[in-house]
Amino acid sequence: MSKVNKLKIFNDPIYGFISIPNALIYDLVQHPYFQRLRRISQMGLSYLVYPGANHTRFHHALGCMHIMQKTVDVLRFKGVSISPEEENALYIAILLHDIGHGPFSHAMEKSIVEDVYHETISLLFMNQLNVEFGGQLSLAIQVFRGDYHRKFMLQLISSQLDMDRMDYLKRDSFYSGVAEGNINSERLIQMMNVVDDVLVIEEKGIYSVEKFLMSRRLMYWQVYLHKTSLVAELILTKVLKRAKELTQKGILLPCSEPLLFFMQNKITAATFNSENIELFSQLDDFDIISALKSWQKQDDFILSSLSKMIINRDLLKVKVSSEKGSKEELKLLKKRFASENNIALQDTNYFIFKGKIKNQAYSIEAESIRILKKDKTIEDVAEASDQLNLKSLSKLVTKYYICFPKQLI
Question: What's the whole-model pTM score?
Answer without folding.
Answer: 0.92
